[in-house]
Amino acid sequence: VRRRWLLASASLVGAIGAVCLWRALSLEPYVVTARAADTALLAGVEVQRLREVLRLATVSPEDPNRFDSLPFLELQQLLVSAYPRLHQSLTRRVVNRYSLLYRWAGSDSSLEPVLLTGHLDVVPVDSATLHRWRHPPFAGEVSDGFIWGRGVLDDKGSVVAILEAVELLLRQGYTPRRTVYLAFGHDEELGGQEGAVQLAAVLRQEVSRLAFLVDEGGAVGEGVVAGVERPVGLIGVAEKAAVNIELSVEQPGGHSSMPPRWTAVGVLARALTRLEEHPFELRLTPVVREMFLRLAPEMPFKARLALANLWLLEPLVLRQMAGDPRLAATLRTTTAPTILSGSTKANVLAGRATAVVNFRLLPGDTPEGVLARVRSVVGDSAVRLRLLGSGTAGGEVADYHGWEYRLLERIIAQVFPGVLPVPFLTVGATDARHYTSLTRNVYRFSPLRVTPELLESIHGSNERVAVPDFGRAVLFYAQLLRSLP
Ligand SMILES: [Zn+2]
Q1: pTM above 0.85?
Q2: How far is CA 161 from the centre of its chain?
């Protein structure tokens, strides 16, 4: 009997293995057919105007009292003189003093308009890291084939590429059929309340629905997805919401020479440790699953075998992927304690110890759900929990099967030959979330090439874009605008 059982289970394992193998071998590569774009257009692209924009320190400081409005006003002036045709043919509105809204009237007003958006502000350069910059952050230098400067990847490169593309098309006498809006906020790095939120409000007064919008939040990635050598066009079709929870512990305080068994700081630290010891469960949301299925044929056989057989191997695959923090961020709601405070004096017990933990939510998770989970993991009534109002919304998933997405996909394939476009979950917050009431089709994609090293330069040092990559970005927007149905 035992032998027969062994034989049966061996043939079962064999059958499962054969199914897995067959599924891996029959994985169809995801193909986007497109004729390469006419690169003749690139000949006229200059970097001069981008360099001038980079020289203006349009910084969003953490402390609002340190906001300097002058560079923002200079930027408005600069754009007017740098893009004469655009300012002649499009109507411009300055919203809330520093944000800009342009309208390029289409010839067919029955078609839903399209919105290209970006932001004019940049994060400050920490003076402690200034010495790391090989070229000063606000000089707009071109060297070693790169354009250097704070904001060139995030997000001035895209903004200027949009303006260049419109100017270029106007020079060729092009008028869109569909009305095109350009919206550039001035405080994305602070949450967009003064910029994008106001821009969206103005837009809502004249547009009931947009066909789609393109903002930052994805890019052409090279070597940024483990195991995939082919460059990928990461189109963010959703972004993670952020939730901040304050943990606080209160005690009488007193002199540190006679501490209680557990101090407020100790109780708080224990709570934080529990949270880090119990990360949220790993989960393949539909967007991320789709991304991996489309990438699988590009991966080494072992990974392809696993991805083709998620029905069997999903838990294993998830555990494997979670080893890479960049991937893990797309597979779970993340937990990151960021702010801590206790006593201000070495010999005084904290009467109140607080911590703020920043959570980034997978689509489907809610702030209330996160709070409830935190309460049960901490499991300590001495720790008070409070949901802070400083989080960001998110979690809406754009359609990635309709013509709008497929158009974007096709343009990426035309402008970046060899690049595979895939839907993607943006883990940071973007201004795009403020426009979700205007359309479901919110796409986060900057047509700029990033490598792991370039990704680190965003909000870091030596932010830069290769000169030809900027040209491609202009070509991308020009091609997109010209191809709007
Ligand atoms: Zn940005």
Answers
A1: yes
A2: 18
